[in-house]
Structures are given as structure tokens and as C-alpha cells.
Specification:
140 residues, mainly beta, eight-stranded antiparallel beta sheet, 4% helix, 42% strand
Length: 140
């Protein structure tokens, strides 16, 4: 992860270490998934325009770059309602995120032009952290 500060806004570039990801073709689309013992965490690249800028009080763009869908390890395809969203906060010199759930079908249609934040708080739901094997994220 690279950050480039410029005044009150910081641009970022996020790259994933590809080693933990396996390639899967699920529901007629390619996905990169981290395979857990009972669930797979499949990365969902945000499909619309994004600025990739954050501020101390707004990490939304980075949250959109950390969208996943989970699927059971024995399941054939994916279910779009199994969306994973990490609600991020700055804690000292790191960023931590707690798991929220959402129906990824919300992203099936493009947002209105200029709407860079189509995922509203009312579609993000509290998740039971004990029901998932990756209940949080830490960026250091």
C-alpha cells in the first residue's frame, strides 16, 4: 500500500500480495479468492469510477477497494447477497476495519454520474464476527 499526501487529501495505491489468492471461475466470472477451511473470501474489484483518495475522516474509497464476497468452500457458485464490506477507521499508525455485510446486487447498476459513494449506511449490516473467519482487516 502506498500513500501520497497532498494537503488534506491522500491518494493511495493498493496492491495485493497474490500468493494467498487462488483463481476461481464462479458464476461465469473470474475471481481471486483466499481459501479458508469453510469459506472462501473472493475479491470484488469495485466496477465503477473511484478517486482512490482518503482523508483522516473519510476512508470510503479504500473501503470500496476492499470489497469481497464470501462463499462456502463446498459451494459451486457465489451468491451476491454474501457481500463483505470493511468499515475502516484510523487507529494510531494503522487502519483497522470491522466487517459489515451487504447485498452486492446493489452494485449491479452503475451509480448516477458523479456519485462516487453509492453504498449508503442503510445497506450495510452488522455482522456476527464469530460467523466469519476474516472478521476484520488491519493495514499497517
Amino acid at each position: 500500500m502506498e500513500f501520497q499526501p497532498s494537503g488534506d487529501v491522500t491518494s493511495y495505491r493498493l496492491t495485493f500480495d497474490q500468493a494467498p489468492f487462488a483463481h476461481h471461475f464462479l458464476s461465469m466470472r473470474p475471481f481471486k479468492c483466499v481459501e479458508g477451511p469453510q469459506k472462501y473470501w473472493c475479491l470484488v474489484p469495485y466496477p465503477y469510477e473511484i478517486r482512490r483518495e482518503v482523508t483522516e475522516g473519510d476512508l470510503t474509497d479504500l473501503e470500496y477497494d476492499l470489497l469481497f464476497i464470501w462463499k462456502g468452500a463446498a459451494e459451486y457458485g457465489i451468491n451476491m447477497w454474501n457481500g463483505v464490506y470493511y468499515d475502516l477507521v484510523i487507529e494510531g499508525d494503522r487502519i483497522t476495519g470491522s466487517l459489515r455485510e451487504l447485498d452486492m446486487d446493489t452494485l449491479s447498476a452503475p451509480p448516477a454520474p458523479g456519485n462516487f459513494r453509492p453504498l449508503s449506511a442503510d445497506i450495510l449490516h452488522e455482522a456476527d464476527p464469530d460467523s466469519h473467519w476474516l472478521p476484520g482487516v488491519v493495514i499497517e
